[in-house]
Protein backbone atom coordinates (compact mmCIF):
# COMPACT_ATOMS: atom_id res chain seq x y z
CA UNK A 1 0.00 0.00 0.00
CA UNK A 2 2.93 2.39 0.72
CA UNK A 3 3.87 2.18 -2.95
CA UNK A 4 0.38 2.73 -4.28
CA UNK A 5 -0.17 6.01 -6.12
CA UNK A 6 -2.23 9.00 -4.97
CA UNK A 7 -5.27 9.68 -7.17
CA UNK A 8 -6.08 13.34 -7.90
CA UNK A 9 -8.96 14.68 -9.95
CA UNK A 10 -10.52 17.92 -11.14
CA UNK A 11 -12.93 18.97 -13.89
CA UNK A 12 -9.93 20.04 -15.95
CA UNK A 13 -6.57 21.71 -15.45
CA UNK A 14 -7.20 23.40 -12.08
CA UNK A 15 -6.10 20.46 -9.93
CA UNK A 16 -2.68 20.65 -11.56
CA UNK A 17 -2.04 23.46 -9.05
CA UNK A 18 -2.20 20.78 -6.31
CA UNK A 19 -0.24 18.23 -8.31
CA UNK A 20 2.52 20.80 -8.88
CA UNK A 21 2.80 21.43 -5.15
CA UNK A 22 2.77 17.69 -4.36
CA UNK A 23 5.64 17.03 -6.78
CA UNK A 24 7.73 19.37 -4.61
CA UNK A 25 6.34 18.40 -1.20
CA UNK A 26 6.18 14.60 -1.57
CA UNK A 27 8.60 13.92 -4.45
CA UNK A 28 8.71 10.17 -3.79
CA UNK A 29 4.99 9.63 -4.35
CA UNK A 30 3.50 8.34 -7.60
CA UNK A 31 0.65 10.61 -8.67
CA UNK A 32 -2.24 9.80 -11.03
CA UNK A 33 -4.10 12.90 -12.23
CA UNK A 34 -7.46 12.76 -13.99
CA UNK A 35 -8.76 15.94 -15.65
CA UNK A 36 -12.41 15.44 -16.57
CA UNK A 37 -12.08 17.88 -19.47
CA UNK A 38 -14.74 16.04 -21.47
CA UNK A 39 -17.34 17.13 -18.90
CA UNK A 40 -15.81 20.42 -17.71
CA UNK A 41 -16.92 22.89 -16.40
CA UNK A 42 -18.39 21.61 -13.15
CA UNK A 43 -19.07 25.08 -11.71
CA UNK A 44 -22.41 25.76 -13.42
CA UNK A 45 -23.73 22.18 -13.10
CA UNK A 46 -26.25 21.00 -10.47
CA UNK A 47 -24.42 19.63 -7.40
CA UNK A 48 -26.22 16.30 -7.81
CA UNK A 49 -24.66 15.83 -11.24
CA UNK A 50 -21.17 16.74 -9.95
CA UNK A 51 -21.67 14.23 -7.14
CA UNK A 52 -22.25 11.47 -9.72
CA UNK A 53 -19.12 12.46 -11.67
CA UNK A 54 -16.99 12.50 -8.50
CA UNK A 55 -18.09 9.03 -7.46
CA UNK A 56 -17.52 7.64 -10.95
CA UNK A 57 -13.99 9.09 -11.07
CA UNK A 58 -13.06 7.93 -7.56
CA UNK A 59 -14.23 4.39 -8.37
CA UNK A 60 -12.29 4.48 -11.65
CA UNK A 61 -9.04 5.56 -9.96
CA UNK A 62 -9.38 2.91 -7.29
CA UNK A 63 -10.25 0.11 -9.73
CA UNK A 64 -7.72 0.95 -12.46
CA UNK A 65 -4.83 2.32 -10.42
CA UNK A 66 -5.41 0.96 -6.90
CA UNK A 67 -4.79 4.44 -5.49
CA UNK A 68 -4.18 4.69 -1.74
CA UNK A 69 -5.86 8.08 -1.40
CA UNK A 70 -8.22 10.30 -3.41
CA UNK A 71 -7.57 14.04 -3.59
CA UNK A 72 -10.66 15.92 -4.74
CA UNK A 73 -8.62 18.71 -6.33
CA UNK A 74 -11.71 20.72 -7.18
CA UNK A 75 -13.64 22.97 -4.82
CA UNK A 76 -16.90 22.44 -6.69
CA UNK A 77 -16.61 18.65 -6.41
CA UNK A 78 -15.44 18.95 -2.77
CA UNK A 79 -18.49 21.09 -1.97
CA UNK A 80 -20.79 18.64 -3.74
CA UNK A 81 -19.37 15.23 -2.97
CA UNK A 82 -16.80 15.10 -0.16
CA UNK A 83 -19.13 13.59 2.39
CA UNK A 84 -20.54 11.08 -0.08
CA UNK A 85 -17.03 9.95 -1.06
CA UNK A 86 -15.88 9.70 2.56
CA UNK A 87 -18.81 7.40 3.26
CA UNK A 88 -18.62 5.26 0.17
CA UNK A 89 -15.04 4.60 -0.90
CA UNK A 90 -12.47 2.43 0.87
CA UNK A 91 -9.52 4.85 0.84
CA UNK A 92 -9.02 8.24 2.56
CA UNK A 93 -10.46 11.24 0.71
CA UNK A 94 -9.07 14.77 0.95
CA UNK A 95 -11.02 17.80 -0.21
CA UNK A 96 -9.78 21.35 -0.70
CA UNK A 97 -12.08 23.43 1.47
CA UNK A 98 -10.96 22.92 5.09
CA UNK A 99 -7.24 23.60 4.68
CA UNK A 100 -7.81 26.87 2.79
CA UNK A 101 -10.25 28.18 5.39
CA UNK A 102 -7.87 27.35 8.25
CA UNK A 103 -5.04 29.19 6.52
CA UNK A 104 -7.20 32.21 5.67
CA UNK A 105 -8.26 32.62 9.31
CA UNK A 106 -4.67 32.34 10.47
CA UNK A 107 -3.47 34.95 7.99
CA UNK A 108 -6.08 37.69 8.40
CA UNK A 109 -5.19 40.64 10.60
CA UNK A 110 -8.32 42.77 10.17
CA UNK A 111 -10.79 39.87 10.24
CA UNK A 112 -12.23 40.99 6.88
CA UNK A 113 -11.84 38.02 4.55
CA UNK A 114 -13.06 37.02 1.12
CA UNK A 115 -13.57 33.74 -0.74
CA UNK A 116 -13.92 33.50 -4.51
CA UNK A 117 -15.07 30.37 -6.32
CA UNK A 118 -17.38 28.95 -8.96
CA UNK A 119 -21.12 29.51 -8.89
CA UNK A 120 -21.57 25.90 -7.71
CA UNK A 121 -19.10 26.26 -4.84
CA UNK A 122 -20.34 29.62 -3.60
CA UNK A 123 -24.04 28.76 -3.89
CA UNK A 124 -23.52 25.41 -2.11
CA UNK A 125 -22.73 27.36 1.08
CA UNK A 126 -19.80 25.00 1.81
CA UNK A 127 -17.32 27.83 2.47
CA UNK A 128 -19.81 29.83 4.51
CA UNK A 129 -20.43 26.77 6.73
CA UNK A 130 -16.74 25.93 7.04
CA UNK A 131 -15.83 29.50 8.03
CA UNK A 132 -18.55 29.50 10.69
CA UNK A 133 -17.28 26.21 12.05
CA UNK A 134 -13.63 27.29 12.02
CA UNK A 135 -14.56 30.57 13.75
CA UNK A 136 -16.21 28.61 16.53
CA UNK A 137 -13.24 26.23 16.81
CA UNK A 138 -10.72 29.09 16.93
CA UNK A 139 -12.86 31.43 19.00
CA UNK A 140 -12.46 34.24 16.47
CA UNK A 141 -14.94 36.23 14.46
CA UNK A 142 -14.51 37.33 10.86
CA UNK A 143 -16.51 39.25 8.32
CA UNK A 144 -16.79 37.05 5.20
CA UNK A 145 -17.52 38.16 1.64
CA UNK A 146 -18.14 35.29 -0.79
CA UNK A 147 -18.10 35.97 -4.48
CA UNK A 148 -18.82 33.71 -7.46
CA UNK A 149 -16.51 34.37 -10.40
CA UNK A 150 -18.03 32.83 -13.55
CA UNK A 151 -15.63 33.09 -16.48
CA UNK A 152 -12.29 32.77 -14.66
CA UNK A 153 -12.11 29.00 -15.18
CA UNK A 154 -12.71 29.37 -18.93
CA UNK A 155 -9.76 31.77 -19.22
CA UNK A 156 -7.48 29.24 -17.51
CA UNK A 157 -8.75 26.40 -19.70
CA UNK A 158 -7.80 28.52 -22.73
CA UNK A 159 -4.36 29.21 -21.26
CA UNK A 160 -5.19 32.93 -21.17
CA UNK A 161 -3.78 33.99 -17.80
CA UNK A 162 -2.67 37.59 -18.21
CA UNK A 163 -4.76 39.09 -21.04
CA UNK A 164 -6.50 42.45 -20.90
CA UNK A 165 -9.86 40.65 -21.04
CA UNK A 166 -9.19 38.55 -17.94
CA UNK A 167 -7.97 41.71 -16.18
CA UNK A 168 -11.21 43.54 -17.05
CA UNK A 169 -13.31 40.59 -15.88
CA UNK A 170 -11.33 40.44 -12.61
CA UNK A 171 -11.93 44.15 -12.00
CA UNK A 172 -15.68 43.57 -12.33
CA UNK A 173 -15.89 40.31 -10.34
CA UNK A 174 -13.61 41.35 -7.48
CA UNK A 175 -15.52 44.58 -6.81
CA UNK A 176 -17.46 43.20 -3.79
CA UNK A 177 -14.32 41.95 -2.01
CA UNK A 178 -12.48 45.19 -2.78
CA UNK A 179 -15.41 47.30 -1.52
CA UNK A 180 -15.54 45.23 1.68
CA UNK A 181 -11.82 45.94 2.21
CA UNK A 182 -10.75 42.33 2.76
CA UNK A 183 -7.13 41.84 3.81
CA UNK A 184 -7.09 38.14 2.83
CA UNK A 185 -8.62 36.51 -0.24
CA UNK A 186 -9.00 32.74 -0.48
CA UNK A 187 -8.83 31.33 -3.98
CA UNK A 188 -11.62 28.79 -3.56
CA UNK A 189 -11.19 27.21 -6.98
CA UNK A 190 -8.12 25.23 -7.96
CA UNK A 191 -8.01 26.99 -11.34
CA UNK A 192 -7.52 30.42 -9.76
CA UNK A 193 -3.88 30.12 -8.61
CA UNK A 194 -2.98 30.19 -12.31
CA UNK A 195 -4.55 33.69 -12.42
CA UNK A 196 -2.76 34.85 -9.25
CA UNK A 197 -0.72 37.57 -10.96
CA UNK A 198 -3.80 39.13 -12.53
CA UNK A 199 -5.84 38.81 -9.33
CA UNK A 200 -3.06 40.36 -7.23
CA UNK A 201 -2.71 43.25 -9.70
CA UNK A 202 -6.43 43.96 -9.47
CA UNK A 203 -6.90 43.55 -5.72
CA UNK A 204 -3.66 45.26 -4.75
CA UNK A 205 -0.46 44.08 -3.12
CA UNK A 206 -1.80 44.74 0.39
CA UNK A 207 -4.19 41.79 0.19
CA UNK A 208 -2.82 38.31 0.90
CA UNK A 209 -3.95 35.64 -1.55
CA UNK A 210 -4.40 32.19 0.02
CA UNK A 211 -4.56 29.19 -2.32
CA UNK A 212 -6.89 26.34 -1.40
CA UNK A 213 -4.76 24.18 -3.68
CA UNK A 214 -1.43 24.89 -2.01
CA UNK A 215 -2.82 24.68 1.52
CA UNK A 216 -4.37 21.30 0.67
CA UNK A 217 -1.06 20.04 -0.69
CA UNK A 218 0.59 20.90 2.66
CA UNK A 219 -2.21 19.07 4.44
CA UNK A 220 -1.69 15.97 2.27
CA UNK A 221 2.06 16.03 2.98
CA UNK A 222 1.37 16.20 6.71
CA UNK A 223 -1.17 13.42 6.51
CA UNK A 224 1.27 11.14 4.71
CA UNK A 225 3.94 11.85 7.31
CA UNK A 226 1.75 11.86 10.44
CA UNK A 227 -0.75 9.22 9.38
CA UNK A 228 -3.53 11.22 10.93
CA UNK A 229 -6.45 12.79 9.16
CA UNK A 230 -9.04 15.35 10.10
CA UNK A 231 -12.34 13.70 9.37
CA UNK A 232 -14.82 16.01 7.71
CA UNK A 233 -17.70 13.92 8.95
CA UNK A 234 -16.86 13.15 12.54
CA UNK A 235 -14.71 16.22 13.12
CA UNK A 236 -12.31 14.00 14.99
CA UNK A 237 -8.76 12.92 14.42
CA UNK A 238 -8.46 9.26 13.56
CA UNK A 239 -5.64 7.06 12.48
CA UNK A 240 -5.19 6.39 8.80
CA UNK A 241 -3.93 2.92 9.73
CA UNK A 242 -7.56 1.82 9.57
CA UNK A 243 -7.55 2.79 5.90
CA UNK A 244 -3.92 1.70 5.41
CA UNK A 245 -2.44 5.02 4.30
CA UNK A 246 1.25 5.68 4.49
CA UNK A 247 4.04 7.29 2.55
CA UNK A 248 6.64 5.43 0.53
CA UNK A 249 9.37 4.31 2.91
CA UNK A 250 12.46 4.98 0.75
CA UNK A 251 13.21 8.75 0.75
CA UNK A 252 15.40 8.40 -2.35
CA UNK A 253 12.57 7.22 -4.59
CA UNK A 254 11.49 9.61 -7.32
CA UNK A 255 7.78 9.42 -7.98
CA UNK A 256 6.08 9.28 -11.36
CA UNK A 257 3.16 11.31 -12.69
CA UNK A 258 0.46 9.74 -14.86
CA UNK A 259 -2.06 11.97 -16.62
CA UNK A 260 -5.53 11.09 -17.87
CA UNK A 261 -8.11 13.21 -19.64
CA UNK A 262 -11.68 12.53 -20.69
CA UNK A 263 -11.39 15.25 -23.34
CA UNK A 264 -8.76 16.20 -25.91
CA UNK A 265 -5.50 14.55 -24.82
CA UNK A 266 -3.30 16.64 -27.14
CA UNK A 267 -4.69 19.85 -25.67
CA UNK A 268 -4.18 18.38 -22.19
CA UNK A 269 -0.55 17.60 -22.92
CA UNK A 270 0.20 21.05 -24.35
CA UNK A 271 -1.72 23.31 -21.99
CA UNK A 272 -1.01 21.06 -19.00
CA UNK A 273 2.75 21.32 -19.64
CA UNK A 274 2.46 25.12 -19.93
CA UNK A 275 0.48 25.48 -16.70
CA UNK A 276 2.63 23.03 -14.75
CA UNK A 277 5.96 24.27 -16.00
CA UNK A 278 6.84 20.57 -16.34
CA UNK A 279 6.83 18.54 -19.52
CA UNK A 280 3.86 16.15 -19.71
CA UNK A 281 5.09 13.33 -21.91
CA UNK A 282 1.82 11.54 -22.55
CA UNK A 283 -1.84 11.67 -21.61
CA UNK A 284 -4.09 8.62 -21.45
CA UNK A 285 -7.60 8.86 -22.82
CA UNK A 286 -10.50 8.09 -20.49
CA UNK A 287 -13.88 7.32 -21.97
CA UNK A 288 -16.93 7.27 -19.74
CA UNK A 289 -18.95 5.41 -22.36
CA UNK A 290 -17.06 2.16 -21.88
N1 LIG B 1 -11.33 23.66 -10.45
C1 LIG B 1 -12.70 23.60 -10.08
C2 LIG B 1 -12.89 24.12 -8.66
O1 LIG B 1 -11.95 24.15 -7.90
C3 LIG B 1 -13.75 24.26 -10.91
C4 LIG B 1 -13.76 24.23 -12.36
C5 LIG B 1 -15.06 24.09 -13.06
O2 LIG B 1 -15.96 24.94 -13.00
O3 LIG B 1 -15.15 23.07 -13.71
O4 LIG B 1 -13.98 24.47 -8.28
Summarize the structure.
The protein has twelve helices and twelve strands. It is α/β, with parallel strands linked by helices and 290 residues long.
Radius of gyration: 18 Å
- Placed side by side, the strands forming the largest sheet appear as 4-3-1-2-11-12
Distance between the termini: 28 Å
* Beta-strand proportion: 15-25%
Report the major sheet. Answer: 6 strands, parallel
- The parts where pLDDT drops under 50 for at least 5 residues are 229-242
Number of strands: 12
Bound molecules: D-glutamic acid
Supply the CATH class of the largest domain: Alpha Beta
Instruction: Quote the average pLDDT.
Output: 91
Number of domains: 2
DSSP helix fraction: 40-55%
What is the fold named in CATH at topology level of the largest domain?
Rossmann fold
Shape: globular
Compute the number of helices.
12
Following the backbone from N to C, one meets helices and strands in this order, namely EHEHEHEHEHHEHHHEHEHEEEHE
Any guess at the CATH architecture of the largest domain? 3-Layer(aba) Sandwich
Structural class: alpha/beta
List the helices and strands and how they pair.
Elements: E1 6-10, H1 16-25, E2 31-35, H2 47-65, E3 69-72, H3 75-88, E4 93-94, H4 97-107, E5 112-117, H5 119-124, H6 126-138, E6 143-148, H7 152-157, H8 164-173, H9 175-179, E7 184-187, H10 196-203, E8 208-211, H11 212-226, E9 228-230, E10 237-239, E11 257-261, H12 265-276, E12 283-285
Parallel strand pairs: 1-2, 1-3, 2-11, 3-4, 5-6, 5-7, 7-8, 11-12
Antiparallel strand pairs: 9-10
Helix pairs in contact: 1-11, 2-3, 4-6, 4-11, 8-10
The site of D-glutamic acid has 17 residues, from helix 3.
Amino acid sequence: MDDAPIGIFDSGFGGLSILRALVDLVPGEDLVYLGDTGRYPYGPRPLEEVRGFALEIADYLIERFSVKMIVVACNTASAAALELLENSIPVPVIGVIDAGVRAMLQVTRSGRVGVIGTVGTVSSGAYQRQVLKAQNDLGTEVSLTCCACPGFVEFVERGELHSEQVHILAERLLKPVIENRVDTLLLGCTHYPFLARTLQDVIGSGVVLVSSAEESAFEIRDLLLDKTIHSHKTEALFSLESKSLSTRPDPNLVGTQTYLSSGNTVKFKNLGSQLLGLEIESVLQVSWDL
